[in-house]
Design brief:
This protein has about 250 residues and is of the alpha/beta class. The protein contains ten helices and ten strands. The protein has one domain (about 1-175, about 190-245): 2-enoyl-CoA Hydratase, Chain A, domain 1 (Alpha-Beta Complex). The strands form two sheets. The chain has a six-stranded mixed β-sheet with strand order 1-2-3-5-7-10, with helices on both faces. This is Enoyl-CoA hydratase/isomerase.
């Protein structure tokens, strides 16, 4: 079977690479399952100090795979696994991020995006809403920015993503890997206990969001995906045309 979440390891840092460029690393049921399994392995591996989540191709993650989407509960479990992992998860983004891919970023502890990156919450244009990805996003995003980008689906760049709290830093003209050198060095110098205890402090609000809202948002997501608007929106997307409601 083709591995869609390819692992590698270097000096305490395990890198998990989203490696399905043919569908722009879209969140298929298979990819979500593989990534969840890989994170579970990292959680119990004493050799892993931290995890880097990155990608092949020019897209970090295009959102849900509309041809083979994961169950909403499975995707929620993946995002919660990132937040609750007792080891920091660092996102390295050098490409585009759409819809559910922003949920992965929101779940990560630290993230760096390069100048070629772009971001968009496109759900409203498909007759959907950023339902389950709100669990990690809304506790971290600037509220006014969340309202704008949730409603309009506009595209924005890495600098704006950093300004509104979606990513930690925009690398600008320099290389993303150079920007992450002090981050990874700091993680390697920290004790495993110190990292776990510190992460527990900074993720407490996000985990409460999962505990309080996950069940409702999973149900809301399932209802939206089953709606007439969503069928029209997803069909139009696959057919590369505007949906019927566009004015």
């Amino acid at each position: 079977m083709t591995t869609l979440a390819t692992p590698s390891h270097d000096r305490g840092i395990t890198t998990l690479t989203l490696d399905s460029p043919a569908n722009r690393n879209a969140l298929s049921a298979t990819l979500v399952g593989e990534l969840t399994e890989a994170l579970a392995g990292c959680a119990v591996d004493d050799a892993v100090r931290a995890v880097v989540l990155t990608h092949t191709g020019n897209t970090f993650c295009a959102g849900a795979d509309l041809t083979a989407p994961p169950e909403p509960a499975a995707f929620v479990a993946l995002m919660r696994a990132i937040v609750a992992l007792p080891k920091p998860v660092v996102a390295r983004v050098t490409g585009h991020v759409r819809a559910g891919g922003l949920g992965l970023l929101g779940a990560c502890d630290i993230s760096a995006a390069g100048p070629g990156s772009s971001f968009a919450l496109t759900e409203s244009r498909l007759g959907l809403a950023p339902a389950v990805i709100s669990l990690p996003l809304l506790p971290r995003l600037d509220p006014r920015a969340a309202a704008r980008y949730y409603l309009t689906g506009e595209r924005f760049d890495a600098e704006e993503a950093a300004r509104i709290g979606l990513v930690t830093l925009a690398a600008g003209p320099e290389d993303v890997d150079k920007a992450l050198v002090p981050v990874l060095d700091g993680l390697r110098r920290a004790s495993p206990q110190g990292l776990a205890a510190s992460k527990e402090l900074v993720t407490a609000t996000v985990l409460r969001s999962f505990e309080q809202n996950a069940e409702d948002l999973i149900a809301r997501s399932a209802a939206l995906f089953a709606s007439d608007d969503a069928r029209e929106g997803m069909t139009a997307f696959l057919e590369r045309r505007d949906p019927a409601w566009v004015l």
